[in-house]
Amino acid sequence: MNLRREFVYIWYYFSVQFEQIFDYWVVGMMIGSAISVFAKDHIHHALIYLQKKHFGIFGIFVAAFLGIASPLCMYGTIPIAASFSKEGMKDDWLASFMMSSILLNPQLIIYSAALGQEVLIIRIASCLLCGITAGLLVHFIYKEPSFFNFNSFDEPVNKDTDDNLVLRYLKNLGRNIKATGVYFFLGILLSALFQRYVPADVMTALFGGDEALGVLMAATIGVPLYACGGGTIPLLQQWLWEGMSLGSAASFMLTGPSTKLTNLGALKIVLGLRRFCLYLVYVMVFSFMTGMLINLIL
Predict the structure, then answer these.
(1) In angstroms, what CA-CA distances link 70 with 79, 113, 136?
(2) 174 is in which domain, residue-wise?
């Protein structure tokens, strides 16, 4: 193997995809930081306000939308949810908010736009439905006193405290770049390696068509492979080019963030072993059924 030639090929694939995705990454970070600095508290206060209006079961739907609008990671969302719980918010609202927040945020929405309008719509709709369904299941099925245990989580720590709004935003943006940059470039590199060394027909055989096995494979591979939302966008883009079905992509986009190791560690604490196992079963079943339904429709 000519190493110099291989390097040129990989660099070519890397540079092409970098040019296609980089703008989405930058815009996503800028918007995500802006929401985190200037709108995060308003989003959370809106949920508390609506809870006091006694929306009942319809609040589950509102909570799912606000969960997606929240820019926090899971270790930031759980302390917020703990404070909501102390305010008297019901577990079904909390389940909907937390599930949606795990799956999607404004920054990841911008990233996902690089995959095309159809995939973006599928991602937003499936994440919303997953959050809403989680809330409805807790509402109708779980009858014990409390579904969550937030005793191990303190009030959320706010890092955006600089008096100068510009500096506050820039510091948040810097943390954003630090948190996602390595995974973003690693995702592009992995995509370039896939493009160079994995034949397209292999990807089509694994994830293509309407077969249940392809959806199941995508759901399963999302568990160990997902480390950062931005890092998976280049991989998904490459796989979709090479024949991955939309249902398989949807399944991957659901299981990936919901089984991310850092998210699972936090959820295990607040759910306990039995409810944590139920959560894993729910995620896998919902993602598989969603992928199959999308393939059937589209």
Answers:
(1) 13, 18, 20
(2) 3-154+164-297
